[in-house]
Specification:
The complex is a heterodimer of chains A (about 300) and B (about 475). With about 300 residues, chain A is α+β, with helices and mostly antiparallel strands. Helix content of chain A is about 20%, strand content about 40%. The radius of gyration of chain A is 24 Å and the shape is globular. Chain B has about 475 residues and is α+β, with helices and mostly antiparallel strands. Chain B has 14 helices and twelve strands. Chain B has helices at about 5-15, 15-55, 80-90, 125-130, 140-145, 150-160, 205-210, 230-245, 310, 315-350, 355-360, 365-400, 425-450, 455-460; strands at about 60-65, 75, 95-110, 110-120, 135, 145-150, 165-170, 175-190, 200, 220-225, 245-250, 300-305. Residues about 255-295 of chain B have low confidence and may be disordered. Classes of the chains: A alpha+beta (about 300), B alpha+beta (about 475). The interface between A and B is large, with 40 and 38 residues.
């Protein structure tokens, strides 16, 4: 056997081995994609897409907020300043650079139904305006879930194994909470500022903005927002009907800072017509770890509800 | 069968009046019961349909959906020509009137209840005055502005009385939350509502609450003179609208019974930058249009024609049960009658053995003997059944005058607290036909035995 033949064989073996490694890598990548897992390279399912990739967001929604300079004196706020302040609260209460998961405890008080508690797990991908919620307590409701993806929303009942279409404005479990309350905030998109004033709420100096819906398909035609100027967080929101009657008051009593986000971890919703009817929503165990894409599918909700 | 057979049969029927009365009485009673059952089942059927129709808004409903700026289909339309087309499409229409409706939450004090709020044009819809029983209040008060006609059950639950103010929370035609006030001006007996919790207000008031223009409406309710024509009328109305170039489809809208006033999604799949409530968030797809598949231009109107039968599927199945119970009793009565007739003619055969022998001796053939027996059975059973049916009519209408508790189990099947007796000619003929056929079947065996009697043997045995 001459040397040239040996070299040829060695070359062939090297090429074959390299080709095998490439093919093996390709198989791994395709396999990972097929399972909906991150394909590597630092591009996680939740955080990918960059700042402008948000579904349903107007152009420059996130970018314009970055460089906006707010007045130092709250008495100098203009309508545009206030709208940008609302936008800041929208962005900071949401997670556009990562996914979010948390445990939600919801305590509901109603004159008709008494007090009842529901615990659930929530998974959110604010960039895509997607969310998945699964009830963990009480035992009788365990496995029931809600999925929002591609601008559609469904409830899932594991007993009947059926998905039923629901909407953002529908109340959650006959409480004062609506499905929309679990979603990312985007009041600065839906409303324009009509009037602003200043005041105090407890010990906090607040800017009070009266906002009107930009179109007739936004559920609450008028809202009044109380925003603490220093920390730029929403403390209270009053929602009004078309006839200008108070429908509901939301209090955001506690915030937790996670990265750039300020998450309202304790939210109290009080009915405007029946003040005794109220709900408290508490977020705990908040995580911003990336979530697999398959979390936001009907198949996963069906599987995890079993 | 010849005339001689009938004459012989008639003579035999007259010959033993006691037995004829006993046997005929039994058959007549069976026919009477059958007629009463079929008449009352029919009446309950029509009463339930009428009650459901009243709460649904009509036998045929024409709903209009207009595409909004976002492509969302809103349950509203403004086209007077549609009303005229519907009115002229089918001749046997009782009333055509505009309807608005909403799934609303009524709040009184710290209590709330969800119900269907229906806007009625009190001046046009006389049917409601005729059909609903007011337990409190009067129609003049109900027809006045911002007044509500509430069900007795809701009023009792809330402790409401005439003059009380309630708050109503509803969603406008475009999907916005609204709160309005109403005064309770009337309380109606809702025992016939079949579990549907409805309150009635003025069409104008509810349209304003739904933020609709004065020329807009959500549905056109068509009440027919004959409820059985609903499907036929719906088809004709669909064709008439389509012929004029309107986009029309058939069948009940998903969630239509829930009073979903807006929020039928055109399936645009587009989420406007200006709206946090995406178009697809608004509700189920319309007419099979899947989300993201179609985009309707703003202002485009589509119509959907549905019938009360499509809306009242569950009540229809309850009616089916009542019908089957009626059929079971009907069959039971037929079996009892058949047994009675068959036994009687076995006795007749024994009594008339000698007579049959003599008839055979003077030239009667087997066929003649058989035919005379069958003719006697038909005469007796048919005559008795006719008497039973005739007696059932005054009795049925008399029972219809007896007042029943409208809050009982059959409340939904009553008309103003009374059972409705509504036998049809077809049902009466069916009762007569069935009794006659059963009589022939019951007499068949004794008649064949009679025909097989050997004349000499018969005379020898009975000598």
């Amino acid at each position: 056997m001459d040397i040239s033949n040996i070299e040829k064989r060695l070359l062939n073996a090297r090429l074959t081995s390299k080709l095998s490694i490439v093919l093996f890598g390709l198989v791994l990548v395709l396999g990972a994609r097929a399972q909906g897992a991150p394909s590597g390279g630092g591009s996680h399912g939740g955080g990918a897409g960059g700042m402008m990739g948000g579904i349903g967001l107007p152009l420059n929604f996130l970018q314009a907020d970055k460089d906006y300079k707010f007045p130092d004196d709250i008495n100098k706020y203009t309508a545009n300043d206030f709208l940008m302040l609302v936008r800041r609260t929208d962005i900071r209460s949401s997670f556009y650079n990562s996914d979010m998961s948390a445990t939600i405890s919801m305590v509901n008080v109603s004159p008709d139904r008494g007090t009842f508690v529901i615990k659930q797990q929530i998974f959110r991908r604010d960039k895509d305006d997607a969310l998945l919620m699964i009830i963990t307590e009480p035992e009788s409701r365990k496995g029931q879930g809600m999925l929002r993806v591609d601008n559609n929303m469904w409830r899932y009942d594991p007993t009947s194994r059926k998905f039923t279409h629901t909407t953002l404005k529908e109340t959650y479990e006959n409480s004062t909470v609506t499905n929309n309350d679990f979603r990312r905030w985007q009041r600065s998109i839906d409303y324009s500022v009509e009037k602003i004033s200043t005041g105090t709420l407890g010990n906090y100096k607040v800017i009070i903005g009266e906002l009107k819906a930009n179109n007739d398909e936004v559920p609450f035609p008028y809202i009044k927002m109380y925003i603490e100027a220093d920390r730029k967080i929403v403390l209270k929101v009053e929602e009004y009907s078309l006839s200008m009657k108070l429908l509901r008051t939301a209090y955001y009593t506690q915030y937790v800072q996670i990265g750039d986000s300020f998450v309202p971890t304790v939210q109290i919703f009080q009915d405007g017509l029946i003040p005794e009817k109220r709900s408290q929503v508490t977020y705990t165990d908040i995580s911003t770890k990336p979530l697999p894409d398959y979390y936001f599918t009907k198949e996963y909700l069906e599987r995890v509800s079993q | 069968m010849r005339l001689i057979h009938l004459k012989l049969a008639a003579r035999n029927v007259r010959r033993q009046p006691h037995r004829t009365i006993a046997l005929g009485g039994a058959v007549a009673f069976s026919a009477l019961v059958m007629t009463l059952i079929s008449g009352f089942v029919n009446g309950m059927d029509s009463a339930i349909q009428d009650n459901v129709t009243l709460y649904a808004g009509g036998h045929v409903l024409v709903s209009g959906y207009t595409a909004s700026w976002s492509g969302r289909l809103q349950n509203r339309f403004a086209d007077e020509a549609v009303v005229d087309i519907v009115r002229n499409a089918y001749p046997d229409i009782r009333t055509v009137s505009p309807i608005s409706q909403a799934r609303a939450t009524v709040v009184f004090g710290s209590r709330e209840v969800q119900l269907t709020l229906r806007g009625i044009d009190w001046a046009k819809d006389q049917l409601y005055h005729d059909s609903l029983i007011l337990s409190k209040g009067d129609w003049n008060g109900v027809a006045s502005s911002r007044s509500m006609l509430m069900s007795a059950q809701t009023a009792s639950r809330f402790g409401l009385s005439i003059g009380d103010q309630v708050m109503v929370r509803l969603t406008t035609a475009s999907g916005q939350e609204n709160i309005t006030d109403y005064k309770v001006a009337g309380i109606y007996d809702d025992s016939a509502a079949g579990g549907m919790n409805s309150a009635f207000v003025s069409f104008v008031d509810l349209s304003a609450d739904l933020n609709m223009k004065s020329n807009e409406q959500q549905e056109i309710g068509v009440f027919l003179r004959n409820s059985t024509d609903a499907e036929k009328a719906a088809q004709i109305i669909t064709k008439a609208l389509a012929a004029k170039g309107y986009t029309v489809s058939r069948g009940a809208m998903p969630n239509a019974s829930a009073g979903n006033t807006a929020d039928i999604n055109a399936g645009t799949g587009l989420e406007s930058a200006g709206s946090g409530q995406s178009a697809a968030d608004s509700g189920p797809g319309y007419a099979g249009l899947s989300p993201r598949s179609h985009q309707l231009a703003p202002g485009t109107v589509v119509y959907r024609i549905s019938t009360v039968q499509e809306l009242a599927g569950e009540i229809g199945s309850a009616l089916g049960s009542i019908r089957w119970i009626g059929y079971a009793i009907f069959i039971l009565m037929l079996i009892v009658s058949a047994t009675g007739i068959s036994n009687s003619y076995r006795m007749v055969l024994l009594e008339r053995t000698k007579e049959i022998g003599m008839l055979r001796c003077i030239g009667y053939k087997r066929r003649d003997v058989f035919s005379s027996f069958i003719a006697e059975g038909i005469l007796l059973a048919g005559g008795a059944a006719l008497v039973g049916v005739v007696l059932a009519l005054p009795l049925g209408f008399g029972i219809g005058l007896v007042p029943f508790n409208p809050h009982g189990d059959f409340g939904a099947a009553l008309v103003q607290g009374h059972l409705r007796f509504a036998p049809s000619l077809g049902q009466i003929l069916l009762v007569l036909a069935f009794v006659t056929i059963v009589a022939i079947a019951a007499v068949f065996l004794p008649a064949r035995k009679a025909a097989e009697i050997v004349p000499v043997e018969a005379l020898r045995k009975t000598a």
